[in-house]
Amino acid sequence: MLDNALRKAAAIWVAPAGGAPRLVWALWRDGAVLVAVGGTEQEVPGLADGVRCAVTVRSPSTHSHLLDATATARLVEPDEVTAAALRSARLNAAPRWESVYRLEFA
Predict the structure, then answer these.
(1) InterPro entries per the record (predicted)?
(2) CB of 33 within 8 A of CB of 19?
């Protein structure tokens, strides 16, 4: 169910340990969620390498609660293909981020 819900979600709620939940755009790729932060992108206070996060997914059509899961944030340097996927998933004309985190589910 997690895989299916995250494939369809364009945005998820992320709450780094001790932090408030933030609605963020996200990209499901290779069994994890990618979240770009900083620059012209969203800010997620408390998101850092190795931090555990609570993730909430809501239905894209009804906005009803679908599931909660726990993930660990891993700072990554996206390769060209992944960076292109992140750019194409955004509505920003030229998105620029400072960091990309891969949220890995246990």
Answers:
(1) Split_barrel_FMN-bd
(2) no
